[in-house]
Amino acid sequence: MTLLDARDLRYRHAAEAPEAVAGASLRISAGELVGVIGPNAAGKSTLARLCCGLLSPQRGSVSLRGELLEKLSRRERARRVAFLPQHPPQDLSFTAREVAVMGRAPHLGLWALEGPRDFERAHAALAELDALELADRPVSQLSGGERQRVFLARAFAQDAALLVLDEPTAALDLAHQVLLVNALRRRAREGGAALLVLHDLALAGAACDRLALMDRGKIAAEGGPGDVLQPSVLSSVYGTQVEVMLNPATGQPLVAPRILR
Amino acid sequence: MKRSAAARAALAVAVLVPVVLVAAVVGLSTGAGSLSLRDALQGREPDATVLFRLRVPRVLLAAEVGAALSVAGVALQALLRNPLADPFVFGLSGGAAIGTAIVTVASGTAVGAAAASAASFAGLLPTQLAAVAGAMAAALLVFTLGRARGNLDPARALLVGVVFNSFASALVLSVEAVLRPDQMQAVSLWLAGSLGYEAMPLLTGAGIALLLPVLVLLALAGRMNLLALGDEGASALGVDVGRTRLFAFFAASAAVGIAVAFTGLVGFVGLIVPHAVRLLTGPDHRVVLPASALGGAAFLVLADALARVLFRGLGAEPPVGAVTAIVGAPLFVLLMRSRE
């Protein structure tokens, strides 16, 4: 089942600005983890926002589960796709539990009151991300990695089939990166999918089923990690010499910059 | 904090209703003259008249205005994501002041006086109506000029409000130059915020009129929580951020307008009550809003009681707005420091 079908998206942030996304298409089916990689200002975050309706493309269309995004109500949209921005707010006085249960908002009625089921979902999501023991602490007092796990739990609690996560691993230590990827894999097996904007190419190669390499608003290469993570392609797009070897244990491509000293 | 928002709101209300009742008893039993509540309740004169004609309406007015200003403060702080937002840094007070000043000046002219007496005859209160109209006009102005890219921009709206308030007070100062001394005293008393004795039907009407903005804000409380995640974070959770801001802003303005119409500019209530309440309840607006309504009612009733006894020996009474500021400013600093 196709969860996301983005076709020929074009977007510029201001009339005189260059196109941030210049004709990009992307399909994501249930069960897939898709990584979007590329240098700074390649349009990765803009593409992610277009895919969940936070920005409207000037041209092109986005469908979620076969329905055009602009035809969905905001709440219905939020039940189909959950979004985690790159920099969630840091100064919240809400507790981790309160933030996690905010993910239930698109499922609540007029007075926005959560029931026991919503708290169960929030607790399950916190537990999935090893953040249950943080539940009663204000988010403003957590470390960057802890806070990130709480916001990931909020996205998980939303129960949307598609997760769009912008740099979800940037603040996480190695063990929690693996924990997150395994949790995403589990959701994918149950019919979910995720679009991950990633800078860590080693993680992208190991975690994703498919990669889309963006360059100046366009998808420069798309396919399995082995096809996209080619030294020649990466070196030209990133503008620096890149080596790719195979992880001896897993056989997955392993990307490393060549730094001479 | 595992309990649901509804349970925590109910707990806060259960704790605060007795507080309001105690404040009301204090408010009813303080005043210029001595009064025996027992005699009054048994119908003995003149205590009964003093209680039911003077003190009950006065306490009711203080409670309504305190609740309205506090609820508006909560809403404005949430939707501007600024803890310093208060109904009166927002231009609403300036707008109301201009409205009142214009009516006061106009009633000095022959045509204006005739119009004012005609309006009063029709049961309308020209000064009050002008205050509400001025506050709403200021809200509209702040909302229009405070937009960037079609959305209300908190920093910009706050700047517009502050600038407009300075402009308004300059305008009022200029107008005061042409007023007679008695008119000037009325205007400055109003600017300082003072509670008077209003008729019961009017107070009942105001209470009912206040219910609408309060209900709108309660329905928006869950969405106000999500606004703390930022516009994008809230929008990703299905919130129509623009519409939420619009409704919350005008509901808050309506509550402030009604309060201002009766009492003028009673400062600090909308700032200090929400902050004190949040310290006790946490940041969830579904709890903070009803708790602030009750806390604000109790606060202003007590402040008014204090105003009435403060200079009782001198036979004078400071405006309640001065009392809220004198009590409120140090209390606010204390609250801030206890938070750290």
* CA-based gyration radius of chain A: 18 Å
CATH superfamily of chain B: ABC transporter involved in vitamin B12 uptake, BtuC
Q: What is the average of the pLDDT values of chain A? A: 93
Structural class computed from helices and strand pairing of chain A: alpha/beta
Q: What do these coordinates show?
A:
The complex is a heterodimer of chains A (about 260) and B (about 350). Chain A has helices spanning about 45-50, 75-80, 95-100, 115-130, 145-155, 175-190, 200-205, 225-230, 230-240; strands spanning about 1-10, 20-30, 35, 60-65, 65-70, 80-85, 160-165, 195, 210-215, 220-225, 240-245, 255. With about 260 residues, chain A is α/β, with parallel strands linked by helices. Chain A has a domain at about 90-160. In chain A, strand 7 (about 160-165), helix 6 and strand 8 form a beta-alpha-beta unit. Chain B is mainly alpha-helical and about 350 residues long. Chain B has one domain: ABC transporter involved in vitamin B12 uptake, BtuC (Orthogonal Bundle). In chain B, about 75% of the residues lie in helices and about 0% in strands. In chain B, strand 1 (about 145-150) and strand 2 form a beta hairpin. At the A-B interface, helix 2 and helix 3 of A face helix 9 and helix 10 of B.
How would you summarize this macromolecular structure in one to three sentences?
The complex is a heterodimer of chains A (261) and B (340). By secondary structure, chain A is an alpha/beta fold.
